[in-house]
Amino acid sequence: MKMNIEKHSSKFIKPLVPTPPTLRYYKVSFIDELAPSLDIGAVLFFSENNNDHNTKFVTQLEQSLEKTLPRFYPLAGRYVNETYTVDCNDDGVEFIHAKCGGVALGVRTAHRIVDASTLCTFLSEWAVMNREEHVEITGPGFNTSSLFPGRCFPPGPLQAISDDDMSTKYIRKLYSFSESAISNMKAKANASMCDRHWSKVQLVSAVIWNALIGVDRANNNPRESILVQPVNLRGKTASLIPKHSCGNLCVFCATQAGVVETTEELANRLTNNVKETIHNFSKVDHNSEEGKLSVLNSISLPNIPESINLIMISSWCKFPFYEIDFGLGTPTWIAPWSMPMVNTTCLIDEARGNGVDAHVFLEVKDVPYFEEALRLQVGSFAA
Predict the structure, then answer these.
(1) Cα–Cα nearest to 144, from 217, 247, 60
(2) Which of 255, 207, 208 is nearest to 229 (CA)?
(3) Would you give the distance in Å from CA 248 to the centre of its chain?
(4) Shared-domain flag, residues 247 and 367
(5) Residue 71 burial (CB count, 10 A)
(6) How many structural domains comprise the chain?
(7) CA-CA 20 to 30 A from 146: which of 94, 188, 261, 354?
């Protein structure tokens, strides 16, 4: 989706209530430390019918943001690399008012202290505040540093595509898998083998993974591959991590595949591996040193040789982004902003909830091969 955007104004919004001195320096967790030095965000699009009181609504957004920031105070601070801390100095967040021919609200922040769950929690609470409704405190706020204290690790090895390469060699493509397309794929698989209870996320992940394997074959470079999926830790450990905890709270689940695999084999492998990962962490006490080491080992990517294709697929499905209402009604469409890396995909529920939108970063030259491989598996998809 392309649109013309004209910047109208820009200002910094500070927390309405100053951050107390006792919270001035927020030490990040070791999961935060290992997060890539990249940004994360989302753009929420709303019906154009709700564009009647633009100036008043923008002012209301500014005021509600002021009221929301005290609970999310690290967002208004500045990260200090040398000390692995956020200086919560209340410098504020930049609020940009732009004209785009419709109604959209975008948020972008550092992945260093925010994951998809945190982003959704922040947007949800800001939206409730903007509707001037009573805000229930839904969780402990930023608490990852108390759960997994920092160890002064350098950022993870994942590197983003440069701006120059992104504008010439690479492209972000959207592929939409409808509920009916997913049901048809499941039915076709179940007709040929015993019943498989795949989630839509694992099935679509397997389809994309197999398409990327097909790209390697088309380029005369067949090779083994590893698919890495973040797994949300909230609510999954023996010692409970609250659902609305803020910060980076995930581990990696890595699954390997050979040169030739069927989509069904990949879906089975992904499903079994994720289930095993969740089962293993259901026995982990994150308060113990052993539990902390289990988490650390699961987010430390091994040295993967160049001969193996590294693929990453993150899922934002089931996070209630489509329930966020700033007083304009719920979004008509949501575009996640995630790290631009080769062969990286972000999955999110489609607007109706039962399909999947896949945002895939590809080399421009590989797009025809990728889409042909998708057609062979799915038959049809929206691109």
Answers:
(1) 247
(2) 255
(3) 11
(4) yes
(5) 21
(6) 2
(7) 94
Kindly report the backbone phi and psi dihedral angles of residue 71, in degrees, each rounded to the nearest multiple of 5, phi listed first. Answer: -75, -25
Pair 69, 168 in one domain: no
Task: Evaluate whether residue 211 is within a structural domain.
Answer: yes
Q: Retrieve residue 231's tokens.
A: 């797994």
Query: Helix (H, G, I), strand (E, B), or coil: what is residue 9?
Result: strand
What does the pLDDT look like over 58-116, one tens digit per residue?
999 999 999 999 999 999 999 999 999 999 999 999 999 988 878 899 999 999 999 99
Residue 228 · residue 290 · CB < 8 Å? no
Q: How many residues does the chain have?
A: 383
pTM exceeds 0.85 for this model:
yes
Are both 360 and 269 inside the same structural domain? yes
3-state DSSP call for residue 287? coil
Please report, for the domain that includes residue 194, its CATH number. Answer: 3.30.559.10
Could you read off the pLDDT of 22-52 as tens digits, one per residue? 999 999 999 999 988 889 999 999 987 655 5
- Domain holding 115, by residue range, is 6-147
Beta strand spans in the chain (E): 6-13, 25-27, 39-46, 78-80, 85-87, 93-99, 103-110, 170-177, 225-232, 250-257, 309-315, 333-337, 344-349, 356-363
